Amino acid sequence: MRTVSDSVISSRAVMVGRIPAVAAVQPVCAAPWFPPGVMHWRGEATGSWWAMTPRGGRLIEAATEEALAYEVRQVMAGLAV
């Protein structure tokens, strides 16, 4: 009797010599959460991540999207200077 997991595994199996190997499954990563009203983007020229907060129009820069989301939340909570 075949189960759903059997068909998933067999569909990802490849042959290595005569021994089947299961291809590695990549983890699913969720995009970082930004507060409502925050505009964010990745700069083509700088390669940095940028955000503009809705209150006060503060421009924030970070090396990664995750770091940017953290900094934005800190600024909007009044914890960052």
Please report the total strand number as a whole number.
5
Helix content: 25-40%
* Backbone CA Rg: 21 Å
Largest sheet: 3 strands, antiparallel
Give the oligomer, counting copies of the same chain as homo and different chains as hetero. Answer: single chain
Low confidence ranges: 2-11
| Coarse structural class | alpha+beta
What does this structure look like?
There is one protein chain. The protein has 81 residues and is an alpha+beta fold. Helix content is 26%, strand content 25%. It has two helices and five strands; from the N terminus they run αβββββα. It has helices at 4-12, 65-76, and strands at residues 13-16, 19-22, 39-42, 49-52, 59-62. Strands 3-4-5 form a three-stranded antiparallel sheet, covered by helices on one side. A hairpin with a 6-residue loop joins strand 3 (39-42) and strand 4 (49-52). It is elongated, with a radius of gyration of 21 Å. The chain starts with a helix and ends in a 5-residue tail after the last helix. Residues 2-11 have low confidence and may be disordered.
Feature tags:
26% helix; 81 residues; two-stranded antiparallel sheet; disordered N terminus; alpha+beta; 3-stranded antiparallel beta sheet; 2 helices
Outline of the structure:
This protein is an alpha+beta fold.
Strand and helix map with partners:
Layout: H1 4-12, E1 13-16, E2 19-22, E3 39-42, E4 49-52, E5 59-62, H2 65-76
Antiparallel strand pairs: 1-2, 3-4, 4-5
